[in-house]
Amino acid sequence: MSDVYLNNKFVGTVENGQNFAHLVIDERRKNSLPANVNVHYNPLIDIVKIESSRGRARRPLIIVKEGKPLLTEKHLKQLEKGELNWTDLIEQGIIEYLDAGEEENTLVAYEEEQLTPEHTHLEITPFALTGLATSLVPFGNYSPGARLAMGSKNQKQALGFYIANFLARMDMDVNLLHSPQVPIVQTAMTSISGYDKHPSGQNMVVAVMSYEGYNMDDAVIINKSSIERGLARSTYYRPSIAEELRYSGGLVDQVSIPDKEVKGYKSEEDYRFLEGDGIIYPEAQVTEGDVVIGKTSPPRFLSSLDEYNLAAATRRESSVALKHGEQGVVDFVLITENEEGNRLVQVRMRDQRIPEIGDKFTSRHGQKGIVGLIVPQSDLPFSVSGITPDLIFSPHGIPSRMTVGHLIELIGGKVGALAGRHIDGTIFQAEPEERIRRELLSLGFRYDGTEVFYNGQTGKRMKARIYVGNMYYLKLKHMVANKIHSRARGPIQLLTRQPTEGRAKEGGLRLGEMEKDTFVAHGASLLLKERFDADRTVAPVCEQCGLIAVKDEFKNKSYCLLCGEDTLINNVEISYAFKLLMDEFKSLCIYPKLNLKSKY
């Protein structure tokens, strides 16, 4: 007897579990049971598990009987004519969805040629093995799985034409590539997913070579003239938002140019771009600190007297200004209302981004790299036919990573550009490499994809032939302009008096344990002291009890809270975080006594 479980609840027993599982599957294929029911028979423990719950990952497969798929040529013709659709195939029991459990009792073939009488199912297409983004990578079966996954993830970070109505939207922070191109080397997924309608990269001429060592360690070198022609240019959009909030007692925020009486008034210079309604005008060039939306709010705390005299209560300044490091042009101003009926002002900023040293680029094969040098075209190497590469990729990125797909795409892109057609690089079903190479030979180029190059600075012929071709390269959202950060002086935290954290808050760069060790190893003691002076404080310490004393600024003398005024008090230079730690020890009833010694 076999136990039967429905959605993990015991419902009864059957005589033969395997026959029962086959019976359930047959009934489902006949449409007597819902299509979302899956059954799994485990012969080791003689249990049948039937699942119909939500949240299971299920995938469609073609049913195979006696070594032949149920999906025939006749069905395919009917599908092309529109006489059949996907749902019909499921209802007729030609295609079914399996979950992880039922898959255990099946034998799935990738291709029709592999079918044997033992097979129960056939994949609809071999690239169904991968996800959407992964199946966009051409020649993916030529690269290791880790690199394929990286190439897939990198595509999600690429800048492109993300949506057609971007001008009418207020998205949080988005990038738009100025002249996106459809890849020369495509996969079947390119047209299925509609990627050709919203591409996110450009076809570049890529040479695999070293150039003065500026492309070591995954760096790439870019042609300055290509950038001047508009290569990889993008725009960064970011909105600033202000809302007229309502408070208790009928008080409201007000979008307007703040009066000089307002508490926290900045300066006339900061408000120079605001128009009469307190909102900036489109196409204004602004930098950090400039006010974009002027706003005042009621005072935070009202005393009992002020409640009856609201005119006397000065409002406080709460304008929206550009944060540290931001700049750009005002692109669009939107005045509307939100769900609560409060007035809402949104101002979208735009900033043109031209590729610079430190920007991140990648191919679709997980070969990411940052720009190490931007070289004028006159100094770059050129081929016999006068072609100068847009991008130079280091050859050291290939041997250890084994991304052969990257190399084949170079040849495929070259053939596609010369023959004026798209190359099919679908994973497991790509055009054969041999055929692409032969076509390249017939187009008048070398079979192996290399060309004779000349040094752009000396004009001499290079000793080695250079591997060169066309490749779809992506510019990623990780740009130097969003990450560059430095600080000399700036804001500090209230509790520890140490610098704030993070670029947005104008924070400091933390010197950790390991960084401290490098200074110690160099013997740079004064530099070490300087770096640890961020929260330096001079604290009066009582020599009798060893506790922190109090300095009375009015009487200009110090006294100890424990011993009174008659004890000897010395000023000691310590870190404020250390003083805070000792105060916290006191709150735990631990006596942190400082034993002072003279340093002389």
List its traits:
five-stranded mixed sheet; Dna-directed Rna Polymerase Ii 140kd Polypeptide, Chain: B, Domain 6; alpha+beta; 34 strands; OB fold (Dihydrolipoamide Acetyltransferase, E2P); 600 residues; six-stranded mixed beta barrel; 4 domains
> Into which percentage range does the β-strand content fall?
25-35%
Class derived from helix and strand content:
alpha+beta
Multimer state: single chain
| Arithmetic mean of pLDDT | 94
Helix percentage: 10-25%
State the helix count. 13
Give the biggest beta sheet.
6 strands, mixed, barrel
Gyration radius over CA: 35 Å
Per CATH, the architecture of the largest domain is Beta Barrel
Low-confidence stretches: none
Q: Please state the overall shape, judged from the principal axes of the Cα atoms.
A: extended
Strand order of the largest sheet: 12-26-13-24-23-30
Report the span from N to C terminus: 92 Å
What's the CATH H-level superfamily name of the largest domain?
Answer: DNA-directed RNA polymerase, subunit 2, domain 6
The CATH class name of the largest domain reads Mainly Beta
CATH T-level topology of the largest domain: Dna-directed Rna Polymerase Ii 140kd Polypeptide, Chain: B, Domain 6
Tally the beta strands. 34
| Integer count of domains | 4
